[in-house]
Write a structure and sequence with these properties.
Distance between the termini: 28 Å
Shape: elongated
Number of helices: 15
CATH architecture of the largest domain: 3-Layer(aba) Sandwich
CATH superfamily of the largest domain: Glutaredoxin
Strand content: 15-25%
Order of helices and strands: HHHHEHEEEHHHHHEHHHEEHEHEEE
Helix content: 40-55%
Largest sheet: 6 strands, antiparallel
Structural class: alpha+beta
CATH topology of the largest domain: Glutaredoxin
Length: 359
């Protein structure tokens, strides 16, 4: 009952639908999997493989017959982009503790497209036909940004460059560490090093600067997160607090197994053993809903300005205007639990009651 409304509200309020983009990758899978080059351009090689559109390096298209990797998607994947800088402690923490564990669990589902933009709070100055960069944490960070930009360019697929960057952020963005991290991916580090030390790396980093400076709203800090091209406080908080749950809630297609697993994990977390909502604190008011199909009544304290949103998805949701014990008044007196439904910035705690036993 209330859970259904909460999850829908999370998606509705936290994520805006993308429109008006000129990036060809915004056209969807028809463009992503048109050729190997377009798959690399959009970072969707793995996605195309999973959808029987494996693109070999020297041919337009080829079918994939690996049944173990087959995933059927009925909607576009959710695109999450991190704007960061290579020596940023908060960025490193999010990559290590949130993004990479989420990626590991979600990679085979195909519903997540991840982008990294290593530039952050840097500044660039034209220098002839080239550019000079000034970074928040000094020249070493500027070089680290270039290594990561070059790795994204040369490694192509997020299944290669994201583990590489995760490794590099863990050990520190230096040539020595980068060579080790590339070896873990069985990738020759030589072209990445050459790129980072040359004009190619400068031009690639310039592209990262353009992407960062084009943000609307402009980034106010790093890590700065967008979802499907948009940034809001709800998106930032949702991706930082529970990335898997937020991506799953945003994905409009059939939910893969990992989403069901995470929802179950959220539900089984420790919950209060006593009611929370006997008395509501202003501006919140008491609301209740009776779920006759499951034989339970729920009470919660809610800000009235959100009532119309929940009411759309929970027709029986009603404001209590009398006794402050609406469930008991309707013969639901057996307290069962006080779960918190939703996640990130959109949560609600409610008391659930079973019917009064018949004598």
């Amino acid at each position: 009952m209330l859970l259904r409304a909460l999850l829908t509200f999370t998606v509705t309020m936290g994520v805006a639908l993308a429109s008006g983009h000129t990036n060809p990758c915004d056209q969807g899978s028809g463009y992503w999997c048109r050729s190997y080059e377009s798959a690399v351009q959009c970072g969707m090689v793995a996605w195309c493989k999973l959808n029987k559109l494996e693109h070999e390096a020297h041919q337009e298209t080829a079918n994939v017959d690996n049944k173990d990797e087959e995933v059927q998607l009925d909607a576009a994947p959710v695109e999450v982009t991190l704007y960061f800088e290579s020596y940023c402690p908060g960025c490193k923490s999010w990559l290590q503790n949130t993004a990479y564990p989420a990626y590991q669990r979600m990679a085979s589902s195909g519903i997540l497209k991840l982008n990294l933009v290593p530039y952050g709070n840097a500044q660039e100055r034209p220098y002839g036909s080239s550019y000079t960069f000034y970074c928040q944490h000094g020249a070493a960070e500027c070089y680290g940004n270039k290594i990561e930009s070059c790795a994204i360019h040369y490694m192509g697929d997020q299944s290669a460059w994201f583990p590489f960057i995760h490794c590099l952020e863990y050990y520190g963005p230096t040539d020595t560490n980068a060579q080790y991290c590339a070896s873990l991916q069985k990738f020759d580090y030589t072209p990445i090093r050459t790129c980072a030390n040359g004009e190619e790396g400068t031009q690639l980093e310039h592209q990262m600067a353009l992407k960062t400076n084009a943000l609307n709203p402009r980034h106010a800090y790093v890590p700065w997160l967008t979802m499907n091209g948009y940034h809001t406080d709800a998106i930032q908080n949702g991706l930082q607090s529970n990335m898997i749950a937020y991506v799953c809630a945003t994905y409009t297609g059939t939910k893969p197994a990992v989403c069901n697993q995470v929802e179950a994990e959220i539900r089984t977390k420790a919950e209060p053993t006593t009611p929370c909502c006997h008395t509501c604190t202003e501006p919140k008011k008491k609301y209740y809903s009776i779920d006759k199909a499951h034989g339970m009544c729920g009470e919660c304290c809610m800000d009235p300005k959100y009532f119309w949103i929940y009411k759309v998805f929970e027709p029986s949701l009603t404001k209590d205007n009398s006794t402050n014990t609406p469930c008991a008044d309707r013969k639901y007196t057996v307290y069962t639990s006080t779960p918190t439904h939703g996640f990130g910035p959109v949560k609600m705690t409610l008391d659930l009651y079973d019917p009064t036993p018949k004598k």
